[in-house]
Amino acid sequence: MKKRIAILSSILGLQFSAMAQTNNYADVKLTHLNPEKSAATWIRAKQVTPRYPMDLAIKGIAGCGVFKLTINEDGKSQGIELVSSIPKNSIFKPAKKVIKKWRWKNISGQPNQAEEKTIRLDFCLGGNSEEEAIARCAEQANLKCK
């Protein structure tokens, strides 16, 4: 009996170990809706892929959110509002944390002034590689976010 329990424990341990070693790939895609990036006064100072919010990753939540915000004269995000999202109640809080940390730089050559923006963030999970996660996110960004 003890031998059977030891074997069963070993098998379960190997299964849990294999599960813990499974890589989960994720990507976040930012789309500038209004104004488009080419017509914007302000762009993000660091043009790197936004980090996937830990709250969403832990819960295995993928989705999208459309946000309105204002970039103030100091290049900070403020007045962040959710326009639409999928899923409805999970995206806003973690996405707002991400957006609030961004710093923006004025690329217009004009004096700093506030600019209203509408952006879309797609939070994508899955795939067997980082490239596959990025491709999935590009496809997801073409779908409606309502």
Q: Can you offer a commentary on this structure?
A:
- This protein is of the alpha+beta class.
- The chain has a single domain, classed as 2-Layer Sandwich (TolA/TonB C-terminal domain), CATH 3.30.2420.10.
- The chain has 4 helices and 6 strands; from the N terminus they run αββαββαββα.
- The protein has a 4-stranded antiparallel β-sheet.
- β3 and β4 form a beta hairpin.
- The longest helix has 20 residues.
The count of domains is: 1
How far apart are the termini?
Answer: 56 Å
Shape: globular
Q: Let me know the number of strands.
A: 6
What is the architecture at the second tier of CATH? 2-Layer Sandwich
Give the SSE string. Answer: HEEHEEHEEH
Task: Please mark out the parts with pLDDT under 50 across 5 or more consecutive residues, or reply none.
Answer: 1-21
Figure out the total of helices.
Answer: 4
> Which structural class do you get from the secondary structure elements?
alpha+beta
Q: Could you tell me the mean pLDDT?
A: 83
Helical content stands at 25-40%
CATH topology: TolA/TonB C-terminal domain
Query: What is the CATH domain class?
Result: Alpha Beta
Q: For the largest beta sheet, what order do the strands appear in spatially?
A: 1-6-3-4
Percent of sequence in beta strands: 25-35%
Give me the Rg, rounded. 20 Å
